Amino acid sequence: KLHLAAGTPVAVGAFDAHMGAVGGGVQEAVLVKVMGTSTCDMIVGRSGDGPEHLVKGICGQVQGSIVPEMLGYEAGQSAFGDVYAWFKSLLMWPVETLLPRCSSVDSSQKKALQSEISEKIMENLEKEAAKVDPNESAVLALDWFNGRRTPDADQRLKSAITGLTLGTSAPAIYRALIEGTAFGARAIVERFKEESVAIKKVVAIGGIPHKSELVMQIVSDVLEMPIEIPASEQTVALGTAMFASVVAGINTSVAQAQQNMKSPIWRTVHPQKDFADLYETKYAEYKKFGAFVEREAL
């Protein structure tokens, strides 16, 4: 039907995130995080001789699902960048709802103002959130705005924010939301470690690693691990090309394709040691707060 010559190799499709993991350099002990509106966290491992150990509470583990002949493990968060988008939408409500009704400016000015504020709000919110001293802020947020994907999926769960006072600012809330998503990322890493899946390196791909220095710094601080960010902004396409090169016989294996075609590292984010104890304490508070909300809300 495709009028292909006999012997032409034909590849099949796979999940976009799995392709991105390969493009990002996934291998044993290397966790690749696709960070966008949600997250997908992937790592691979070797099958043992005995019964397969199932990691509790993750999305799944399947032989050959990410890399041939390797166990593919997948976890993730239901909302990540979507949490920040929700907060932007919240702050934009008066601009989008009340500004069009204002009689002091004409329609062209209204559109220009709305567009300019929409473009600048997150950039300036991030600048001000970076100035918030996490030692001084008591605001704590859960990242379950779209339920909890992993560890231990429960889509009935909702987010909650505590520690608000009359002096709490929008940047302080925004920073707490970032910290909450970072704590959710750490919960995934902790679960893998508890289940004897070693993680020695973290690689971040997707839109957020290239867009937000603050988010990546806080995630690194909370994980207490460096995070490598590849230069390629199309890592899924790169992983697809790696698979294609193997199918075409240009490379003999996925590992060889990764070695020959890998993207250089654009930036490595290192954890700030001064925040290690603080975020250890806050992560414990996040787990305690989460357990309370989970127990009382359901």
Question: Your description of this structure?
Answer:
By secondary structure, this protein is an alpha+beta fold. It has 9 helices and 9 strands. A 7-stranded mixed beta sheet has the order 3-4-2-1-7-8-9. A two-stranded antiparallel ribbon has the order 5-6. A hairpin with a 3-residue loop joins strand 1 (30-35) and strand 2 (39-45). The longest helix has 25 residues, at 107-131. The protein is globular.
Q: Could you list the spans in which at least 5 consecutive residues all have pLDDT below 50?
A: none
Largest sheet: 7 strands, mixed
Query: Helical amount among residues, as a percent range?
Result: 40-55%
N-to-C terminal Cα separation, in Å?
A: 54 Å
* Share of β-strand residues: 5-15%
What structural category characterises the helix and strand content?
A: alpha+beta
Number of strands: 9
| Gyration radius from CA atoms, angstroms | 22 Å
Could you name the key traits of this structure?
298 residues; alpha+beta; seven-stranded mixed sheet; two-stranded antiparallel sheet; 9 helices; 9 strands; 45% helix; 13% strand
Topology, element by element:
Blueprint: H1 16-23, E1 30-35, E2 39-45, E3 60-63, E4 71-75, H2 81-97, H3 107-131, E5 140-141, E6 161-162, H4 170-194, E7 201-205, H5 208-211, H6 213-223, E8 227-230, H7 235-247, H8 254-261, E9 265-269, H9 276-297
Parallel strand pairs: 1-7, 7-8
Antiparallel strand pairs: 1-2, 2-4, 3-4, 5-6, 8-9
Helix pairs in contact: 1-7, 2-3, 3-4, 4-6, 7-8
